[in-house]
Amino acid sequence: MASLLGYVVNGALAGLLYALIAMSFVIIYRSARVFNFAQGEIVVVGAFVVWTFMSVLDFPWWVSVPLALGASLLLGLFIERLILRPLVGEELFAFVMVTIGLLIFIRGVVLVAWGPEVRFFPAVLPLAAIKVGPLVLDRALVLGGAATLVLAAITSWFFNRTQAGLEMTAVAENHQIALSLGISVKRSIAIAWGVSGVLSTLAAIIFLNGKGMTFLASDIGFAALPVALLAGLESIGGVVLGGLIVGIAVGLAAYFLDPIFQGGVASVFPFVIMVIILLIRPSGLFGWKTIERI
After folding, report:
1. Is residue 211 part of a domain?
2. Which domain holds residue 231?
3. Distance, CA of 196 to CA of 184 (rounded, Å)
4. pLDDT of res. 177
5. What is the CATH number of the domain that holds 160?
6. DSSP string across 89-146
7. Whose CA is closest to 243, among 149, 125, 112, 104?
8. How distant, in Å, are the alpha carbons of 60, 110, 113, 216 from that of 118?
9. d(Cα 63, Cα 81) in Å, to the nearest integer?
10. What is the mean pLDDT of the chain?
11. 142: closest CA among 253, 6, 246, 235?
């Protein structure tokens, strides 16, 4: 029983961390009404920037992390300003194709800049496990789960209680109408991309803490996709619940199904959940019931 509980709790904590990345999908979607296929690559860039500051330049973590977060903010603003801003008012399909192209471009840049070798990501957070009775918990996952809950609360308040957040939601509804109401579409989308970059780097720091990484760490973003689609691409609170659902489901699959099928079930289980939800409720559990064909 203690072993099962450990799988469930650690699965829930991992799910919260995937929710942190899923929040970056949601923030962009709620402001630009576009799904960012390059989000995983932005996670990788943030991770390698932290690695460069700490392992190459030998900066302490308390200098490296703020610098990396600032660089991620600037990267988000750079992408919005030079690549996406010219598309304001265009059809959704144009945004989708640009983000796919951005994915390929950033992956190429990462390969040229840092190469395909495995790098050891420095331990920014303590590696010692936390023991709670019979449970052994990953300290980074515990801290990451707590950070996700706090950031989700702040982000939800921002979108629902501040003028800037409400303007970003209005921009997502219709760029042209928002412009006619005097709302700065460019500023709203820029804020979304900047904040999304920061959240991606935070997730990279927690996920990769003390582990090896390559350019394929972008799969972290892909793994967060089921959480975002399960919750719905407009709901911050729904992303947290979606992360818990997916995380616990993965934990249960690892405990019950992996031994039967000799492993591998837990890794694909989130995508099984995603497909089922998309078939039953394409807008997700908490998303707005609007579907736009591209």
Report:
1. yes
2. 2-280
3. 19
4. 80
5. 1.10.3470
6. TS-HHHHHHHHHHHHHHHHHHHHHHH-SS-EE----S--PPEEETTEEE-HHHHHHHH
7. 149
8. 22, 13, 13, 10
9. 27
10. 87
11. 6
